[in-house]
Each structure stands twice: as C-alpha cells, then as structure tokens.
Amino acid sequence: MIILQINTVINIGSTGRIAEQIGETIKKNGEDSYIAFSRPGLPSSSLPVQIGNQQDIYKHVLISRLFDQHGFGSKTATNRFIEEIEILDPDIIHLHNIHGYYLHIGILFNFLKVINKPVVWTFHDSWPYTGHCAYYESVNCEKWKIECHHCPKTKMYPQSWFFDNSQKNFKKKKVLFTGINNMHIITPSKWLKDQIKESFLKNYPIGVIHNGVDLKIFKPSNSVNFLSSQGIKKKLTVLGVASIWDKRKGLQDFIDLAKLLNNSFQIVLIGLSKSQIKSLPKNMKGILRTENVQELARWYSSAAVFINPTSQDNFPTTNIEALACGTPVITYDTGGSPEAIDENTGLVVDKGDINGLKNAIDTIITEKKKFSVVLCNERAKKYFNKDDRFMDYYNLYKELVR
C-alpha cells in the first residue's frame, strides 16, 4: 500500500510533525509513505515530494493579497505535482492543510474526482468550509453555515489588502469539495466535527482522531537544574508555547496576566520573534521558536502550569505535550482546546478572563496533589499516545482499500 500525505510543511510545526509521525506508523506496518510539502523542514523518514518553489509561493501570496483568491494560485506547481501523483499512483491520498499559498485547489480537487482514489482529509482548522478565514470564533461569525459574504476577517490570514472575495470563494469551495465518492474527513476534536456537521461538508463521513505526541520525548523529567541553567531560580514557571504569537494565541493576555502575578512566578513564552521579546515587560522571559523537541519537553516539565489563552483553535497539540510532561493545563473555553483535559489535569477559563487565569493558577498551585504530574501524564498515555492515535489512521487506510 502506498500512502501520500499532503501538507504545507514537513516535520516541523504541529501539522508537520503529525504528518511525519503518521508516516512513521505507515512504514512500521510495512507500507510505503510519501509526504508532499511546500516549505522544507527537518529531514523526514518518509519519501519527500516538494510542491513548487519559493517563487511559486510568492506569486500565490500576491494573488491572495491583491484579489483575496487564496487557494487559487500555484497553477503550474499544482499541475506538475499532479503529474508526480500519477506516476506514484498512491492507494490513499491523505490531505492535511491544503492552504498556505502552495496549491491550486480547483486543479487538485478536479483531479481527485477523476482518479477516484480514497481520500482522507484531516482538518486542522476551519478553512475548508469558509470563504476566507481559518478561524472564526474570535468574531463569532456563523455566515459559513449558509454562505460567506462581507467577511470580517479579510485583514487576517490569509490576508487580503483590497478585496473581499469570500462569497465567491465559498461558492467555489462548495462545488470543488463536495461530490468526491470516497472521502473521509477526520477532525482532532469533537468540537470541529460538530462544526463541520453544520457546513456544506456535512454529508461526508466524519470521524474524530485526537492528535498524538511522542511519549518517549514528551515525558516528566527533573527540571531543577534546567531552570537554573536558564537563569530561573526559586520561581514557579508559567509557560506558554506557540509557533506564532499573535492576537489569536493570546500574547496580550499573558502581558496582562504578568501584571497580576507576584514575584514568586516567572512567565516564559516560547515561539516569540526577536522584536516581541524586546517589547516584553521585565517579569516575562521570551524565547525564539525552536524545533528542538527535547528542549521543548524540558520547558514543559519545568513549568508549574501551562497556559493556553487562545481565542480560536481546534485541538492544540501544545496542550497534550504539556500533559505528557506532567504539567496541568489552563485553557480558554475555545474550540476543542478543553477536550484535552479533565477535572484532574487542568482548568477551563472563560475567554479573555485574565483574573480567571490568575485564579486558576492559584488553584492548581494550592491543590498540587489533585493536579499531579502522575495524573497529567497518565491522561496523555491513555488518550494521546501517538502510537495509538496514528495507528487509528492506518486502520482507516486499510478499511478504505478493501
């Protein structure tokens, strides 16, 4: 069996690592794994297939910025990629993020309808069923349930400078993404499954497979010496992690939280840019984005609590990475983010409630035995072990090729 996965990146970021680990599972079971991607990442155990080049990406970005036609650039790159698919002749085509300025979705999906191969599509956000945005929770928009128009997020990813083409994009996606004979949609959260059930994709089979993490890497470890080496002594670490820190991820919420915490706490944010680090208040420590997962695991293990003040999300992998390292999670009541935890492994706070974040921290510190390292790690082992979750994908592949 030959499985081809398609994603924006390979073996970096949350979606890149997910595709990589699914590929590892495929190979362990004696099958052939290929991962097609746009932006180079870390070396992959799967056979890599690059789609287009940097120039293609720049052109696609320009089309998106000028005309709000994200997903309708990269014609040449997509046609060349389809030629490679035809040569490869995969048994399963597994889509992840097909947005990201590298694919022409019209060319790709018309091809998928013709070749009639089984398609698995993992939704990491809501972009496939909206006319523009990848997330809509922060503006409480529900136009996608009927038809997008007058989009309130054209200035957000994928940003458009001048036009709002959301209505036309919505209609095009509806035509393109429906009518595939053998497509299964997978979501990492129950929340996103319920959302899709109200969209134009509701007639497809929709299953839930939670994201998984590598428990050999993300596990509890002794953190005292590590914190000392980072210049943090005798303080309780409050940790936040993101690939890109923007309004959606809650950077300002952390800054506001820092004003409420006393000197016994140290906020550490990983994934900031150099300019963001320079602008932080003195009682916050900023760290550049890292793809060193071993170092990331040490930070998770060192934290007294992990906070995810995201205003819109699906099923953040950072939550389960923290749990696997034995660290309780505080998250806003956003999307599928609360699904990672239970009453013994974290707390859920109303979106934007900074005092609620502080109170949740105090509760977890005070009731340390209730929110123990053991319980957090056990929940990760039970529900979010990558070996189990990505085996769910392999079992789905086998069902589809029977």
Question: What's the helix and strand layout?
Answer:
Layout: E1 2-6, H1 13-28, E2 32-37, E3 47-50, H2 54-67, H3 75-88, E4 92-95, H4 105-115, E5 119-122, H5 166-177, E6 183-187, H6 190-196, E7 206-208, H7 224-229, E8 236-241, H8 251-258, E9 265-272, H9 274-278, E10 284-288, H10 293-302, E11 305-308, H11 317-324, E12 329-332, E13 346-349, H12 354-366, H13 373-383, H14 386-400
Parallel strand pairs: 1-2, 1-4, 2-3, 4-5, 5-6, 6-7, 8-9, 8-11, 9-10, 11-12, 12-13
Contiguous low-pLDDT stretches (5 residues minimum) are none
Instruction: Spell the H/E element sequence.
Output: EHEEHHEHEHEHEHEHEHEHEHEEHHH
Major beta-sheet overview: 7 strands, parallel
Radius of gyration: 21 Å
Number of strands: 13
Arithmetic mean pLDDT: 95
Explain what you see.
The protein is an alpha/beta fold and 402 residues long. It has two domains: 2-212 and 386-400, 3-Layer(aba) Sandwich (Rossmann fold); 224-383, Rossmann fold. 37% of the residues lie in helices and 15% in strands. It contains 14 helices and 13 strands. It has helices at residues 13-28, 54-67, 75-88, 105-115, 166-177, 190-196, 224-229, 251-258, 274-278, 293-302, 317-324, 354-366, 373-383, 386-400; strands at 2-6, 32-37, 47-50, 92-95, 119-122, 183-187, 206-208, 236-241, 265-272, 284-288, 305-308, 329-332, 346-349. The protein has a seven-stranded parallel sheet with strand order 3-2-1-4-5-6-7, sandwiched between helices. Strands 10-9-8-11-12-13 form a six-stranded parallel sheet, sandwiched between helices. Strand 11, helix 11 and strand 12 form a beta-alpha-beta unit. Helix 1 (13-28) crosses helix 14 (386-400), helix 4 packs parallel to helix 5 (166-177) and helix 8 (251-258) crosses helix 12. The longest helix has 16 residues, at 13-28. It is globular and about 60 Å long. The model has no long low-confidence stretch (mean pLDDT 95).
